[in-house]
C-alpha cells in the first residue's frame, strides 16, 4: 500500500493495492490513455464537462500527460491512472483515473477529487480500493487536510463509493456544473484527514 517511485522516471508516483497499480504515466503512454477514453466516450461523456476538439487524439494526450508532470511538480494537481496489477506497468491497459486538482495550500490545505472507471470494470469494488489508497497518499505524502468530492444527485454508485470511504455530505449546489450543455445540480461531500492521536507526553 506504500507509495514508491517508478524506476523509469524520477518524478512520478506509484501506489499499489491488492489488485491495482495507480500510476502517473509518461507522454509515451498516450495511446493507452486515449484507448480508455475512446471505449468510454459515451459512459464518461455524460458526466464530463465539454471537451476540446482534439481530446480524442494522441497529440492531446501526449501534451496532457506532460502537463500532468508539471502540475505535480508545481504542487497544483496529481492525476493517477488505474492499471491492473497482474500486468506489466509498461503494457497494462488504463481502466480508470483518480485526480486531485485545484490544490490550495495555506490554512486550507484542500483539493478537489475526481475519478472515473471503465464501464467494463464497474461493480468489482476497484474504485473504492483505489480511492482508499489514493486519499491516504493525499493526506500523508501530500500533506492535505481536506478532500472535496461532488456528484450528480442521481449518481447512486458514486455516492455509495464516497460513503464507504467516509465522505460526509455537506451541501447541495444548484446549477453547479455545466454538463452536456445543461447546468446540473451536485451533492457536495468532503473527507478530512484523520486526527492524530494525542501526544502522550502532553497527557
UniProtKB/TrEMBL annotation:
InterPro entries: Acyl_CoA_acyltransferase, GNAT_dom, N-acetyltransferase. This is Ribosomal-protein-S5p-alanine acetyltransferase. Keywords: Acyltransferase, Transferase. It comes from the Bacteria. GO terms for cellular component: cytoplasm. GO terms for molecular function: protein-N-terminal-alanine acetyltransferase activity. Residues 34-194 form the N-acetyltransferase domain. Gene3D superfamilies: 3.40.630.30. Belongs to the acetyltransferase family. RimJ subfamily. Pfam families: Acetyltransf_3.
Amino acid at each position: 500500500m506504500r507509495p514508491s517511485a517508478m524506476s523509469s522516471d524520477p518524478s512520478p508516483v506509484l501506489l499499489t493495492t491488492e489488485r491495482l497499480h495507480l500510476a502517473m504515466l509518461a507522454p509515451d503512454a498516450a495511446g493507452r490513455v486515449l484507448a480508455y477514453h475512446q471505449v468510454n466516450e459515451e459512459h464518461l461523456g455524460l458526466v464530463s464537462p465539454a471537451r476540446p476538439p482534439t481530446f480524442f487524439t494522441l497529440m492531446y494526450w501526449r501534451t496532457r500527460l506532460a502537463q500532468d508532470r508539471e502540475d505535480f511538480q508545481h504542487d497544483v494537481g496529481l492525476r493517477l491512472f488505474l492499471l491492473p496489477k497482474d500486468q506489466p506497468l509498461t503494457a497494462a491497459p488504463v481502466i480508470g483515473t483518480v485526480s486531485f486538482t485545484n490544490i490550495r495550500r495555506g490554512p486550507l490545505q484542500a483539493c478537489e477529487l475526481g475519478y472515473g472507471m471503465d464501464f467494463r470494470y464497474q461493480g468489482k469494488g476497484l474504485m473504492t480500493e483505489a480511492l482508499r489508497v489514493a486519499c491516504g497518499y493525499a493526506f500523508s505524502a501530500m500533506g492535505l487536510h481536506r478532500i472535496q468530492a461532488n456528484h450528480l444527485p442521481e449518481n447512486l454508485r458514486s455516492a455509495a463509493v464516497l460513503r464507504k470511504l467516509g465522505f460526509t455530505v455537506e451541501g447541495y449546489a444548484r446549477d453547479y456544473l455545466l454538463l452536456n450543455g445543461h447546468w446540473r445540480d451536485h451533492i457536495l461531500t468532503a473527507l478530512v484527514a484523520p486526527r492524530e492521536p494525542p501526544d502522550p507526553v502532553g497527557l
